[in-house]
Design a protein that fits this description.
The chain has 635 residues and is α+β, with helices and mostly antiparallel strands. It has 23 helices and 13 strands. It is globular and about 85 Å long. The chain starts with a helix and ends in an 8-residue tail after the last strand. This is DUF2029 domain-containing protein.
Length: 635
């Protein structure tokens, strides 16, 4: 067979394969849509499992605790045990808490990945609508949706509990349902459903409020009769408000009744709740400084990701979008001044309302995010939409065949950069039990003081249920009344303990992890029958690369070969004297902080205890605390 014949045959085979994949996973049928969605969701679940047990700071600080506190009805018993975040709406955290309580930890990780992957469905639906009369939109819509899932913020939270990924399918579903139909008209039931999804998203995570405003503006900006727009916006608003009130209303009212501020302690400058400082607003650390920074912010936080968060999330999508938007604005202005029609070719075959609404939602959402938060991970919804918007901009600028290739290159390039720079918020290796906390065999103290701004409250569900838990010297904006409440609780409830961070024995932890790995390798060697004979195969494996410094193969008393840790790898692990010194420094600092409340902490009587998330060790200290009659000192 000639080379030409072989090439032609390969092309036909590739074409048949492509058609088969499109029939199965394309958007030509409901079966294809369902298969594609389930496939992407399953892939996200697998990636979540490969990443390991979620161990992010927020999970350890409040996600686990707040769900437990809600289920146990502890809002009046404890006082800010999860610091400033103690009174966030906890409903979104309840399913994860129940999963890790009743199932192996990987089940919860897979469930979160599966949930996050469902964002593919509304995202592909939006892309399909934007592409309008494009004859290849059945293939292109899923590809644009996949590119959206390959974004920095979404990937960083894949399979974790922060909530931005978990509520993204709801917000995107609301946008998809709020788009007018093919006849350019809205359907009442779809608008009510969109409002329901949006109200649920905001009720579960209040940072989605900006997207609710953005969607309302998008409806009002649609190029449809004013009466229709006003009616649609009213329906959407009523449905959103009703569902939000049902979901978050009871909790916000409970917090308001208890403290005098439904968002306690945030925005206390408005509510003046006595237990929090009177000048507290929101977190403004990540907002731009002045108009100059604001106008260049997409370029600035692309160049320096730490401007928008504690963890760097490398990406170029925002810079590319920014430059494409400037070019599109310049082209529009030039056409306007020259008297040429300003309708972009890509939008000419579709109802103008769809691309305009998506564009207004995207722009308004970004501007609101910039003014309210500036925190990168809150951009998950917009980063998921970014490939669709980038496609709209570039195809409008360059409607030719070469423009199409450039659009695909830009979308693919942005996705590849995000995947290559994939970063996360903290993971550990899987264990069957997600969390384990050693509870000392002591009588239940009346009060446990969680000292410092380290995340302690994840341990609380595993300690004494009879005790009260109070955050002190943390990130909570305490008022003098808060300090007095702490003293009153300690005096009224009897013996108290202070819980502090202990320094992990990193060397011992590494040794235990290495020994567990060696045992797994020995089991595999036995299954593969490599431990028979003269140990030649195992010695060869132990000598490869870096492993020769960590492993050696030796014959055990049973006559079988085994991997054992090399002598050089075990030397120097006899103890961690510097850790003890660091713990001492922490205890002295904690004692000084405790004096702010007029309390005495017995530093010499502290005891150390083990706790872990997955296989990551987070030891802690418990120290006796006594109430004194002395008034607290100056802060």
């Amino acid at each position: 067979m000639s080379a030409a014949s072989r090439g032609s045959r390969l092309q036909r085979t590739a074409a048949r394969t492509g058609r088969a994949l499109e029939r199965r996973f394309g958007f030509r049928s409901r079966r294809g849509v369902l298969a594609a969605t389930l496939g992407v969701a399953a892939l996200c679940a697998l990636l979540s499992l490969l990443r390991g047990q979620d161990a992010n700071w927020d999970l350890r600080n409040y996600h686990l605790h707040n769900a437990w506190s809600l289920l146990q009805g502890r809002i009046g018993l404890d006082l800010a045990p999860a610091q400033l975040q103690s009174y966030f709406v906890p409903l979104l955290d309840v399913p994860y808490y129940l999963l890790v309580q009743h199932f192996p930890a990987p089940v919860a990780g897979a469930a979160l990945g599966l949930l996050h992957g469902l964002a593919f469905l509304p995202l592909a639906w939006i892309a399909w609508r934007v592409l309008g009369g494009d004859p290849r939109r059945d293939r292109r819509a899923p590809l644009l949706a996949l590119a959206g899932l390959a974004s920095a913020a979404f990937l960083s939270e894949l399979g974790n509990t922060m909530g931005d990924n978990s509520t993204a399918p709801l917000v995107l579903g609301a946008l998809a349902l709020a788009l007018p139909g093919g006849d350019g008209r809205w359907r009442g039931m779809r608008l009510f459903a969109a409002g329901g999804l949006l109200g649920l998203a905001v009720g579960l995570k209040l940072t989605n409020a900006g997207y609710a405003v953005a969607l309302g503006l998008a409806v009002l900006a649609a190029p449809l009769p004013a009466r229709e727009r006003l009616r649609a916006a009213t329906q959407l608003t009523l449905a959103t408000a009703a569902v939000f009130a049902l979901v978050a209303g009871p909790w916000l009212y409970r917090v308001w009744s208890e403290f005098g501020n439904p968002l306690f302690p945030q925005y206390n400058a408005w509510f003046q709740a006595p237990l929090a400082a009177s000048d507290v607003t929101g977190d403004i650390r990540w907002r731009p400084r002045g108009w100059g920074q604001a106008l260049l912010w997409p370029l600035l936080f692309t160049a320096d990701p730490y401007l928008a968060g504690e963890v760097a999330l490398p990406q170029v999508a925002w810079a590319v979008l920014y430059l494409a938007a400037l070019a599109a604005a310049a082209a529009w202005l030039r056409r306007r001044l020259s008297g040429v029609a300003t309708t972009a070719p890509v939008a000419s075959a579709v109802p103008a309302a769809v691309p305009r609404m998506v564009g207004v939602f995207f722009l308004a959402g970004f501007v609101l995010w910039l003014g309210m938060f500036g925190i990168h991970r809150y951009l998950v919804v917009l980063e998921l939409l970014a490939p669709v918007v980038l496609w709209m901009l570039l195809r409008g600028l360059l409607p030719s065949r070469s423009g199409e290739r450039l659009a695909w290159l830009a979308v693919a390039g942005c996705a590849l950069v995000a995947v290559a720079g994939w970063n996360g918020w903290g993971h550990a290796r899987w264990t069957r039990q997600a969390f384990a906390v050693e509870r000392p065999a002591l009588p239940a103290p009346g009060t446990v003081l969680l000292v410092g701004d380290e995340p302690h409250s994840w341990r609380v569900p595993f300690l004494w249920p009879e005790s009260s838990y109070v955050g002190v010297a943390s990130n909570f904006p305490e008022s003098p009344a808060y300090v007095q409440r702490v003293r009153t609780m300690v005096a009224a409830r009897g013996p108290a303990l202070a819980l502090l961070k202990a320094t992990a024995d990193e060397a011992g932890f590494r040794e235990r992890r290495r020994n567990a790995k060696i045992e797994r390798e020995n089991r595999w060697a036995s299954r593969l029958r490599l431990d028979r004979g003269d140990c030649g195969a195992m010695r060869w494996l132990a000598s490869r690369g870096k492993r020769r410094e960590l492993l050696q193969a030796d014959r055990s008393p049973s006559g079988r070969c085994r991997f054992v840790a090399a002598a050089t790898a075990t030397a120097g692990h006899g103890g961690d004297a510097p850790a003890a010194g660091r713990d001492r420094e922490q205890l002295v600092a904690a004692a000084a902080l405790a004096r702010r409340y007029g309390l005495r902490m017995a530093v010499e009587d502290c005891s150390s205890h083990a706790s872990r998330v997955g296989d990551a060790a987070f030891p802690y200290l418990l120290c006796p605390v006594e109430w004194t009659a002395r008034a607290p000192g100056a802060r």
